[in-house]
Structures
1.
Amino acid sequence: MKIIAVGSPKGGVGKTTAAVHLAHSLSSHGRTLLVDADSIQSAAGWAGDWPNVDVTSTIGADAQELARLRQADYAYAVVDLPGARDAESWHALLAPQGERPVPDLLLIPSRPRLIDLEPAVQLIRQEIAGRLPYLIVFTMVKTAQMHLAEQRANELRGLDLIVSSHMIRDYSVYDEAQERRSPVHRIGGERHRTARDAANDFEGLTSEVRTLTQ
């Protein structure tokens, strides 16, 4: 099993959207467990009866509990971490299990704005780099800001930070998907084209995550 934790020290960056859709996309490649460790339980409320995806809830990110996930019969586990930086949860995330932290990868969603990026960069430099594989992914990117977001991604790469080559664009169709307890992949009708574009964003990210966790 590969365990991917999704978390950010900054709220309002589309963390749960990323966790839910990553779990759905990964389910095409193997049975997947979505673990909602956020006290708000948004991921568990969003994910409905989806093929090849099971959902479980736990409050916080206890290292032993996360480690036990590896004993379950899943190809992937996606953990939606608490929404704001919680010292106990992040300590559990980084606590060694044998000679390494529990997750195989920490996915860090962030808007491409400096106010969102600065806490993430600080977290990586102080606690993550050299201890846990990570990937920054830009989320909630407006179409008009794509060029600026790409420039910012290159700036971060110039600082030896690991940034996804894919971005999650800002689409209102995610609101409809959440109300339907559905991934955007299943939204049809007049919204189908937008939903397909949104789904493609996550398919690209999922391919990158799978490569990093092989």
2.
Amino acid sequence: MVASNAGEMAVLSSEEMVYNVVLRQAALVKKELKSRGDLDVKPDVVLPGTLNLLSEAYDRCGEVCAEYAKTFYLGTLLMTPERRRAIWAIYVWCRRTDELVDGPNASHITPTALDRWEARLEDLFQGRPFDMMDAALADTVGKFPVDIQPFKDMIEGMRMDLRKSRYQNFDELYLYCYYVAGTVGLMSVPVMGIAPESQASMESVYNAALALGIANQLTNILRDVGEDARRGRVYLPQDELVLAGLSDDDIFAGKVTDKWRSFMKNQIKRARMFFDEAEKGVTELSAASRWPVWASLLLYRQILDEIEANDYNNFTKRAYVRKTKKIVALPVAYAKSLISPTSREPSLLEKT
């Protein structure tokens, strides 16, 4: 809430609320840059007997990343060892958080359990990890200028999943997408680093990272419409369904109609707009960090192409990128990762 000129309280939109988090994270990184002159990791302060435990913790995080995110994992191998291990630790924490509400024990998860998970998060940020995986993340946040707020916000997204199964408009859906996926970009940029030659503002780089998370989650939603409907969930803006002449009943019926195709075309168009926004920031990342991000962006965007190829049947067909297309996308992503901020073509907006 903010005070208006008339002295009344105005409600911030979801995008405005999220942008405040972006500004906070960007300010934190700027502070680190000012005090240290760069974003290299802080030197280790290792207690006797803990070095091997930390190494084992990071290795285990790498194994989990390799098992569940093979393409992304391959891209991280080009990063410096410190950044690579830190990204693995963040990935594993995010996966563990997501599995609280989507994993095999999801039916037993309560708001109290999420409160306990958040308390564990606060402890590890204070250097008091609960287990091996927490230890890897605790070490990471001690080395890089990572803010706790995006992590807390992801947990809030899990709370939202427990209490909410409909979204009245895109503003509500945007906030959910930020909580469960946009946060990942804000967590990752301080670790991935920004190219020394980048002239982009810190805020614009973080906005692009946020956009990639939003785009990925919107793509997940469009891919999983049928699967979510079978769980009684509809992650689509209710007001836009009404405007398209559709309702939840149409989704539960699972029939592809002209109205559904038209609705889906607009939803896919929006997701692609977020991917386009995300592209602007990938080039600004440090050279060694670009490949995994480009790979993720290109492969996820192709899921939208597959939904179209399935004639918008996301009720009974699950769109996925075939292995052959993944193999083709990886060298394309690598080639794009070689483009530095100073060598890319400026956009029309930048030229004016």
3.
Amino acid sequence: MVTRTQAVNLNISKKMKKLIILTTICFAVITTVAQEQADIEVSYNYKHFHRTGKEQNHQMILLANAVSSKFFNPETEYVDSLEYTPDGKEIYNQMKMAAFTSGNMKSVPQRRVPMYIFKSKERGETDVYDGINVMMFRFTEPYGIQNWEISDSTKNILGYECTMATCDWRGRHWTAWFSPEIPIQDGPWKLSGLPGLILEASENSGQHVFSATGVQMTPRQITPVLNENNYEKTDRMTMLKVLRKFEDNPEAGLSTALGIGITVKDGIKFDKTLDFLETDYR
């Protein structure tokens, strides 16, 4: 006698079963290299702008405990997990081929925000992985706590009473809203050091805005970057200057990185007033 569950399973295609199995394996790989457990998981919407001036919104995740945290884009980590194993690479290539055939390349997972930020109070260091397209970098810098000025202004975010704080840091003026109700002194990106979790942060030009969309307790592990060798070791200032040069002339940057001639379509204009999260490299 075939049960209802068995009947459902029989209707799943072999290809889909393989994808499910390999996806499970990929996330199992992430778990096996776990370093420590987070206490809290925070989802943020990261609003920023493409070099063409188009607004973009991407989900970011903060996994944090009292002494360590990881800030990343889950889609980027998913792609990295697929590319970590030969079987995963095969599945990812199949996904890209299927999307190309159907004319829907947007359906393929991408490293849309190739950023990982690891903050460690115990080591007094922040590990950064970031880049653009094929230009990927990593570096370690001292754990930096911003010099915040806390105000009397308050507002409610996701049901938590939040207090406003401001600071000037690495070329930008930041306004953050933190909740003392959540005693994790952390926040999105490199922002931290307030007496409570930062649920919202924006810089005064409006080019970069982090807004919490959900907060929950979690047993998830704070895992390292899987494909660390894909990132060239450098320092913060060098990375920012190289990426700025690329943003100012992406055609030349891609041609150099790929070793082939690249031509940008006519009519595409880049907004050079847009800049990175840190602007003190200029």
